[in-house]
């Protein structure tokens, strides 16, 4: 049924795009600007990020991560990375690629890997239509730290939301219409999302085609998206988002996602597994405020009904502690192996619980100190009242060189999310050079 509806919608939309072409007018100045652009681009950056973590040997997640390796009061990491990105245009076609290579040294030794982050071809036969195929980030959603409607994107890291993420292989089309009315712009983006042994093979549902789509409208200066995902790689889901500038310096945004049949696996303190199915609603509301003094304030509330409750997380931590005691006395690793498997089924997500608050404040060039931007981020787990504070200083002393000094402080009682993380503190320095 879904493939038929998907194809029907695309077929109905195509004549609309062709008819709208008669109303499109060109501006000679815009044509001159386009012809002045270079048809190619090549750039990227190299970075080095040494880090030091002060560990918490009593934390449950420390026991899962380091069991059998001896007590470690601290852990140093060394991260080297190189990103290369480029694009080339010819006629109506454009090809873009982004590759990231890294060499990381952690407690388990060196790990080296190169991965294609994005690599796709885009064909734009008319100003109101485009076709993309390949690996790309769609960047759906309006939130800064979380995006509950980003159904075909990888989750952000709220500790560092602006990090570029790896995309997925997909085929998509954009159809755009403009109007002289309160509804100024309408666009539709259908997406084909395959999962097999070669494409998107880290997702379940091998050998199936998934379908997604986004209907965008600019209504009374408010950006609105209606989004869906249907397939066998994950549960069907539907949602919408919005963004609006209230004033020149104040923007509000929100997202809502509904999953009619969400399945959740839960483990109790004795290691017994139960699975339940129900409808889940995820919601995000936020505001971004830029003051006249170049202070940026971002606040977001995130409700994630696909997450775990405080009692469920406490049971998981209790199971880990019991498994660790058994390992110390009998060297039986089975319970800890089971705890590691449960991490992959949801407990190991970046923020695995339900209610969160995010606040970020950054100040550009305070006290007229050029090229300096201090910032402070705060992630608060409303359910168990644990939290994370991330102060940082960003400095660009010369062109293309960026230095960031950051520290991460975690606080919470035993049995809470941030109280059971493997480390209490983390310090890192990132030196990044763009070329």
Please tag this protein with its features.
alpha+beta, 435 residues, disordered N terminus, 51% strand, 5 helices
Task: Give Rg in angstroms.
Answer: 24 Å
Total number of strands: 18
How many helix segments?
5
Structural class: alpha+beta
Q: What is the average per-residue confidence, as pLDDT, rounded to a whole number? A: 91
Please outline the major beta sheet. 18 strands, antiparallel, barrel
Q: What best-fitting shape do the alpha-carbon axes yield?
A: globular
Which sequence of SSEs, written as H and E, runs from N to C? Answer: HHEHEEEEEEEEEEEEHHEEEEE
**Relative helix content:** 10-25%
Q: Percent of residues in beta strands?
A: over 45%
Q: Could you list the spans in which at least 5 consecutive residues all have pLDDT below 50?
A: 1-26, 28-35
What gap, in angstroms, lies between the N and C termini?
49 Å
């Amino acid at each position: 049924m879904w493939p038929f509806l998907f194809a029907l919608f695309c077929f109905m939309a195509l004549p609309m795009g062709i008819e709208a072409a008669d109303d499109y007018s060109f501006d000679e100045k815009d044509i001159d600007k386009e012809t002045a652009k270079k048809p190619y681009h090549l750039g990227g950056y190299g970075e080095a990020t040494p880090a030091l973590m002060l560990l918490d040997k009593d934390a449950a997640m420390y026991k899962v991560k380091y069991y059998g390796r001896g007590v470690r009061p601290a852990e140093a990491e060394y991260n080297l990375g190189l990103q290369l990105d480029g694009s080339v245009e010819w006629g109506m076609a454009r090809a873009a690629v982004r590759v990231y290579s890294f060499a990381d040294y952690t407690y388990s030794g060196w790990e080296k890997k190169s991965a294609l982050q994005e690599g796709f071809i885009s064909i734009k036969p008319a100003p109101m239509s485009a076709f993309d195929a390949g690996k790309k980030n769609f960047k759906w959603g309006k939130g800064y730290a979380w995006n509950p409607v980003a159904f075909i994107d990888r989750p952000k890291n709220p500790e560092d939301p602006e990090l570029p993420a790896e995309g997925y292989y997909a085929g998509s089309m954009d159809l755009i219409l403009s109007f002289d009315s309160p509804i100024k712009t309408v666009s539709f983006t259908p997406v084909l999302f395959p999962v097999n042994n070669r494409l998107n093979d880290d997702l379940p549902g091998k050998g199936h085609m998934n379908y997604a789509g986004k209907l965008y409208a600019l209504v009374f200066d408010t950006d609105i998206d209606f989004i869906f995902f249907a397939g066998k790689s994950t549960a069907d889901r539907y949602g919408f988002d919005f963004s609006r500038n209230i004033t020149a310096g104040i923007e509000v945004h929100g997202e809502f996602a509904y999953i009619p049949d969400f399945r959740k696996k839960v483990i109790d303190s004795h290691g017994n597994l139960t699975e339940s199915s129900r409808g889940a609603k995820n919601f995000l509301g936020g505001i971004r405020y830029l003051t006249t003094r170049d202070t940026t304030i971002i606040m977001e509330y995130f409700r994630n009904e696909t997450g775990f409750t405080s009692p469920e997380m406490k049971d998981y931590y209790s199971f880990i502690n019991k498994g660790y005691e058994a390992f110390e006395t009998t060297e039986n690793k089975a319970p800890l192996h089971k705890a590691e498997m449960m991490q992959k089924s949801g407990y190991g997500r970046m923020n695995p619980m339900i209610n969160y608050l995010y606040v970020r404040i950054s100040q550009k060039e305070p006290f007229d100190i050029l090229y300096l931007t201090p910032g402070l981020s705060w992630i608060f787990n409303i359910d168990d009242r644990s939290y994370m504070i991330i102060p940082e200083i960003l400095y660009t002393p010369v062109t293309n060189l960026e230095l960031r000094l950051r520290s991460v402080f975690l606080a919470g009682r035993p049995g809470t999310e941030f109280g059971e993380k493997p480390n209490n503190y983390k310090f890192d320095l990132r030196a990044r050079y763009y070329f």
